[in-house]
Amino acid sequence: MNYGLTVFRCLLISLATVAILPASANSQAVELGRGSSLIAPEAFLSQGFDVSSFPAGTFGEDTGPSPAQQPGEQKGGAISRSVKRVLADQRELYLAPFKPANFKWDALVLAGTTGLLIADRHIENALPGGHYTFFQDSSDIAIAGLGAALAGAWIYGIKNDHPHLKEMGDLELESLVDTFLIYTPMQFIAGRQRPGEGNGHGDFLRHHAMNTSFPGGHAMFAWAMATVAAREYPKPWVEVLAYGAALTVTAGRFLGRDHWSSDMFVGTALGISIGNNIFHSRCDPDVSDSCRRHSKRVKMPAELQSWRQPDSH
């Protein structure tokens, strides 16, 4: 493979990466009894009629879905709202790179990805050998610990009715869903070989399945989770723990020879972009101080703004 063709292919892959970077009155007949007829309201009053003698639900304002219907209807409504919400997320994430305000970040990611694609083999050959299992295990422990800590905080928030922790857990879950929906097609499209596979050059379009090299999935999911947590609680100790765990995940997968340097760079960039986008578009200013400060500076699109507040039904 000549050098010019390699560079050209690298540029194509970089452009594809930037293109998906992130960087959504019941009416009821009233039965008054057998043989009864409709009577004017004045008649009821003049006769001292007692409305409370009617069973609950007789009048329109008292009626509603039967208890047997309510859970199913609520469940169906929640699923429908969640699907619409995620679809709105995906639309915003795929359109984000084309917004003028993001052009500088597009250029940075494009330049970094292109440079690392060209230098991948040289960087890989310069890495220290051995201890691959240690690095891989460190990465697995870090991402499991990060996920478990955030899940525990979410459960605590639900059980103790803590709005801020509940919001963080909700947005963490949403960011993971959105990350998966971007990660999966990229894996199928890129089909890149991992270090040590094939000819050892990290060729693209060699696989037609998930769990390939590009982009780095562990890095992508870890940085998305860490970014949401650090945005919700912008305290130094939270940022150190969250970003430290994400960095450990990324370094462990890279030093364990599971990915090329460009894989980890793109995975990290996408994870941070998705986490930031989900937080800024979905956070509630009444719950999060950092969201309130951001809302004063930036006006979100109407279709995303409508999802900020919790559902009223």
Structure overview:
The protein has a domain at 133-313: Vanadium-containing Chloroperoxidase, domain 1. The longest helix has 28 residues, at 132-159. Helix content is 64%, strand content 0%. Helix 4 (103-126) packs antiparallel against helix 9 (261-282) and helix 5 runs antiparallel to helix 8 (236-255). The chain has 313 residues and is mainly alpha-helical. It contains 11 helices and no strands. The model is unreliable at 1-49, 57-66 and 302-313 (pLDDT under 50). It is globular, with a radius of gyration of 27 Å.
Task: List descriptors.
313 residues, mainly alpha, 11 helices, 64% helix, globular
* Biggest β-sheet strands, sense, barrel: none
Instruction: Specify the oligomeric state.
Output: single chain
The CATH topology annotation of the domain at 133-313 reads as Vanadium-containing Chloroperoxidase, domain 1
Gross morphology is: globular
Order of SSEs: HHHHHHHHHHH
Instruction: Tell me the name of the CATH class of the domain at 133-313.
Output: Mainly Alpha
- As a percent range, the share of strand residues is under 5%
Annotation field: number of helices: 11
Unreliable stretches, pLDDT < 50, 5 or more residues?
Answer: 1-49, 57-66, 302-313
Total beta-strand segments:
0
- What number is the mean pLDDT? 80
Question: What's the helical proportion of residues?
Answer: 55-70%
Backbone structural class: mainly alpha
Distance between the termini: 61 Å
Radius of gyration: 27 Å
CATH architecture of the domain at 133-313: Up-down Bundle
